[in-house]
Amino acid sequence: MLGEAPFGGASNEKEVVQMNFGKAFLAGVVGGTVMTIIMALVRATMMPQANPEMMLGTMTGSMPGMGTWVMGLVIHLILSGVIALIYAVGFEYVTHRAGVLTGLGFAIIHLIIGGVVMGMMPMMHPMIPEQMMPPGAFMSGMGMMGTGLFVLEHLIYGAIVGAMYTPVHGELRAGAEA
Questions:
Q1: Bond into 134 cis (ω within 30)
Q2: Residue 106: strand, helix, or coil
Q3: pLDDT, tens digit, for every residue of 128-142?
Q4: Are 60 and 71 in contact (CB under 8 A)?
Q5: Structural domain contains residue 8
Q6: Is residue 27 part of a domain?
Q7: Residue 90 domain-assigned?
Q8: Alpha-carbon span 6 to 4, nearest angstrom
């Protein structure tokens, strides 16, 4: 393998970053889609103000509407794919494995960072708080239900990404042992 010296010694060559980029991005898009479906069900039944796609779409300065929601959905799915690439780096170079439990571990870090960012949203969003309700850290602006939903969705996302991703390094090790 490139970057490894014979007999396990040090190498002067840089290690080539190897990841299943497509698999990681797809896993993130699937996870983001599941989050959107869960949020749509919640919006339809009990929390109509919970609309992260509209919040993302209106960050561009567009007025709320179906086109803006679709733009927010696209932004959400792209961000979900990019975040899954970060998970994949962790799977490859930190844990050297992936799976539901490993994905849940990364999801805890993800939800902490995301929760803090949600709290900073009024500083970044042109319509909050004048025209849109501030979500609050960890969606606390929507009460305990909002916070619980935020945590649950991120854990589900991490489980999906962990379950769908297969580390390259794990595949190489498994192939070398066979």
A1: no
A2: helix
A3: 888 888 899 999 998
A4: yes
A5: no
A6: yes
A7: yes
A8: 7
